[in-house]
Amino acid sequence: MKKDEVFMPDGTSFKFWDDTTEYKKIYHVNCNHPKASDDNPGTEDLPFATINQSAKILRPGEKVIVHGGVYRECVRPICGGESPDKMIAYEAMPNEEVIVKGSQIWETDFKLSKDWNFRHLPQGAKIWTGELPEEWFIGYNPFMTQNFSSEYTTFTRDWTDAEINVFMLKRGMVFVDGRPLKQVFRPYDLVNTEGAFWVEDPGLAIHFRLWGDEDPSGKTIEVTTKEQVFAPAKQFLGYIRVSGFHFEHCADGIPVPQRAMVSARRGHHWIIENNTIKWANSCGIDVGNETWHRPTITDKECTGGHIIRKNHVSNCGICGIAAVGNNANTIVQDNIVEWIGDKNIERIWETGGLKFHTCDTVLIKGNVFRHIRNAPGLWLDYLNKNCRITGNVFADIESINGAIYLEVNHAPNLVDNNILWDIRGTRSERGYGVNVDTNEECVVAHNFFGKIRDWYAVSVNLNQRSRIVGGRVGLCRLNKVFNNVFFECPKRIMLSRIADNQSDGNLFDQRNNATSLCVESTENLLDLSAWQRYYGLDKNGTQARIEANFDPETLEFSYNYEGEMPKCCPVPELYGIKSESPGPYEIKLK
User: Fold this and answer.
1) Which residues contact 582 (CB under 8 A, 6 or more apart)?
2) Ordered DSSP codes for 344-365
3) For a tag site, which of 26, 60, 343, 513 has the least CB within 10 Å?
4) What is the rounded distance in angstroms from the CA atom of residue 331 to the CA atom of residue 305?
5) Average of pLDDT values for 12-29?
């Protein structure tokens, strides 16, 4: 096995690639340069003023270096590269902060709002109002456009008013000194809510109340005006690299379609690396087919192949990284994805730190998914095959579907060497560690499950036993749960079908033995002894006194045990790698 070689569940080595272009021409953008102008030639001495000017002229084998400053624009590439050695690159100048925002600074004559019935304002409460410039919204006004997508009319039948109201809210966002105001549904909702705003139809006036009922004078107020911040003018562009930027503030809608802050627009072979992406109304990054209503791209040279690495994605209302198909041979590596899901509408079923559909040979490695609410950490949605989720951290997640959700897959997938810590459910009997929902040939091996308190750490279930995808129903067969460690997990493993599924070599915390294991129905609650004796499961599994601690911020992990160590089972899907100890053997933490 070569250094850095990674095997996929089918035994093939993941095909890594990278930018090998020797750039023949380099343009410069510097909005703070005294001679900056889009009429310039784009040299370092005579730079462009906007990134979009460079996007108009960049051709394969060329790149632009963007110097420090704040650029309020949506960058629209019109040309892609041709190959790994003939790419187009957008680079932030090293050691300079390059911020690209889909917002404008709102400076107007703010007045106290008096023309609306706010009912009973508390003494001293102040609601301010101001008008937005019409010229900011040529072609798109997020303060007039609702979050609502007609795709979800069937889902809303049993929704609460609070969930429906989120759909009816506008897409626009307001920031005061960098801090977001909360949008409310009715004008009188401002009475009981500081730090909030309400949009007056037709989206050209905003009423807002600041924290502590402060005066807006002297504050920097920004409003989102762009749907996206980096997205090509044309679809299907390939071989584009985007490196080192701070992308902030976009007013994208709730998917589908997925039209994220940074979008490949159905393109292929993008490298999105070392960026900070935050404060999207909905999604941070999308690299898929945008929606399942578009034709599937079948040309393998023009689909997927993306590299998404070392980005920090945060504060996105619905999803951090998304892809409806068009994601084959993609790697998502060494990213931090956190504080996702503040829209609180998980039941649109398109949420997640990462949400991919119909993956083929996707490697998700070395990422941190933490502080996620109303969304699973990672969700692979139906007919995924040959995917590997390895060496990741999932911590402090509150969700119906838990940390990792694998939904209705008929082919092998592998979940190994991950740490899952402090996963909680937002509904009764929910909040899984790994939810293996109506899958075949899924392997969950050498993971550490800590403090999965509300539901099963590993659930191999038939929750969607009647759903037909790929021409048939799922069978819940040939799944394996091998060589994991379970610490403070009152519900450890569920196997909804005994036939053909295996569990062995696992190490269990002896403090959570009673009724911690389950077979075939939620009433069949077992301890380890019955699990072993009557069902032949975990013949090599043991219980021990386990102590463990994990800090999601510092990523410091400590773990020890007193007692018998289980005999680990061979995991053929790991192709030659053997470990004598349960739990992760590859993950590298501080």
Assistant:
1) 446, 483, 484, 485, 505, 506, 507, 565, 566, 568
2) --GGGS--EEEEEES-BS-EEE
3) 26
4) 8
5) 98
Cis, bond preceding 257 (omega within 30 deg of 0): yes
* 489, two tokens: 């997990």
For residue range 479-521, list pLDDT tens digits in order. Answer: 999 999 999 999 999 999 998 999 999 999 998 899 999 998 8
Q: Are 442 and 476 in contact (CB under 8 A)?
A: no
- Give the position of tokens 């709730």: 254
Taking the C-alpha atoms of residue 292 and residue 356, their distance in angstroms, rounded to an integer, is: 12
Which residues make Cβ contacts (< 8 Å) with residue 154, sequence separation at least 6?
none
| Per-residue pLDDT reduced to its tens digit, 272-322 | 999 999 999 999 999 998 877 777 766 666 789 999 999 999 999 999 999
For residue 204, what are its two tokens? 């050209």
367 CB burial (10 A radius; 0-12, 13-18, 19+): buried
Give dist(CA 323, CA 152) in Å, integer: 18
DSSP state of 528: H
| Structure confidence at residue 30 as a pLDDT band (50, 70, 90) | very high
- The gap from C-alpha 226 to its chain's centroid, in whole angstroms, comes to 21
DSSP string, 413-426: EEEES-EEEEEE-S
The pLDDT of 112-138, averaged and rounded, is: 92
DSSP label of 183: E
* Among 147-156, 233-242, 356-365, the least confident range: 147-156
Give 154's pLDDT tier (boundaries 50, 70, 90): low
Place of tokens 């998980």: 346
The set of long-range contacts for 212-216, using a CB threshold of 8 Å and a minimum separation of 24, is 213/124, 213/125, 213/126, 215/126, 216/110, 216/128, 216/176
Secondary structure letter of residue 83 according to DSSP: B
Higher-confidence position of 307 and 326: 307
168 membership: H or E segment, kind and range: helix 161-168
CB burial of residue 540 (10 Å; 0-12, 13-18, 19+):
middle
Q: How far apart are CA 112 and CA 445, in angstroms?
A: 60
Residue with tokens 């061979």: 570
Rg over alpha carbons for the chain, rounded to the nearest Å, is 25
Digit-coded pLDDT (tens) for 370-385: 999 999 999 999 999 9
Residue that the structure tokens 């039948």 belong to: 157
Cα–Cα distance measured from residue 425 to residue 402, given in angstroms and rounded to the nearest whole number: 7
Cα torsion 548, 552, 557, 559 to 10°: value is 10
Show Cβ contacts of residue 404 under 8 Å, excluding neighbours closer than 6 positions: 376, 377, 378, 379, 389, 394, 415, 418, 420, 432, 433, 434, 435
The alpha carbon dihedral of 192, 194, 196, 201 has a sign of positive
Q: Specify the pLDDT at position 505.
A: 98
